[in-house]
From TrEMBL:
GO terms for molecular function: ATP binding; histidine-tRNA ligase activity. It comes from Streptomyces marincola. This is Histidine--tRNA ligase. Residues 23-325 form the Aminoacyl-transfer RNA synthetases class-II family profile domain. Homodimer.
Amino acid sequence: MSTFSAPKGTYDLLPPDSAAVLAVREALAAPLRAAGYGYAETPGFEHVELFSRGVGESTDIVTKEMYTLTTKGGTRLALRPEGTASVLRATLQANLHRAGNLPVKLWYSGTYYRYERPQAGRYRHFSQIGAEAIGTEDPALDAELIILAADAYRSLGLTGVRLLLNSLGDRACRPAYRTALQDFLRGLDLDEETRARIEVNPLRVLDDKRESVRRQLAGAPAMRDHLCEACKEYHEQVRELLTDAGVAFTDDERLVRGLDYYTRTTFEFVHDGLGSQSAVGGGGRYDGLSEMLGGPPLPSVGWAIGVDRTLLALRAEGAAPAAAPATDVFAVPLGDRARRELFTVVTALRRAGVAADFGYGGRGVKSAMKSANRSGARFALVAGERDLADGVVQLKDLGSGEQTPVALPDVVEDLRRRLG
Ligand code: AMP
């Protein structure tokens, strides 16, 4: 071991496990690309204010979990704790919303940073795939995103993902609900910190996981009973579209999520095989965020899926994608001349689109054949002085053990044919 190890709450992705992570990312991204979402990439850090304003001054993410730093020039930056604020900032900065083609549909993939207490499924550095549809208010767009996520989980073979759905109302109906909720919460027996939360962001109290609090919340007023007609109608349409698409959901009036910017549709995908960190993904509509960031009104909806937790869910179901062998052909040179000839063959194979690897380090045939077998390759190419004198290399089928000499100039074509 070296003197250094990765910081607490972080992890390294290395083979063979890393292949499964790539497969998960690809499975989550593919449906988005096919639905008109373009790829977006934003910096790993942003101005602190983007998150304090965009995610919310009263959220744990901003008050407790943000990694902040001051540059030598005195600029206050934060490692990004989530993707939505950055992607919306980038959209506004590039004026994508002005191109007249709304919604702006973007997807992204990256690592995010939160100073949380590490535990299974909760890291300080983690990976998400996200999607945002910016600038359009349409229940079909909310439904589209939810369906794409549900289909992505299904394409991975996950069966245990449940969808929780709620509406948080809008500027018209939420204030009255907020007041009613505050009145109810002020009457409860709660600790100092929670009492303070009632005044800043009472909806978040509904999200409290402690049993002593949950018990007291039993009679809390529900947003559902306070939705205005427009929000009710909107939510009903989202529900109908999901039902038409065969996407099952559970109405969960306690689902508020940790971020301040959500309006109307909110949803979370949970998996029961994950213990306390059960959320594999979540999102919702954030109609007011653009204005909070100084932009024009741009009603939007989006989600983020945790890549790490999706993989944990797959493992919990025993369905983690296996690493496909990366190599089709492994070359084993015996002697200096063979090294040169076979190295040329390997380069030619790669240029012809065949995944090939080489026994480096001038090792003996036994050790090189071990590497060939371990690589998962279907064929080994073995050559020594005598083979080369005859103008051939030995093509060994590593499955059957069968060995055939192939003329050196024909090797690439022969292997291409055999590998189909
Ligand atoms: P959030 O922005 O908190 O809704 O996060 C979206 C998704 O990212 C969650 O559903 C999780 O799957 C994942 N996630 C959030 N925080 C963490 C974390 N600290 N470690 C691992 N995954 C996380």
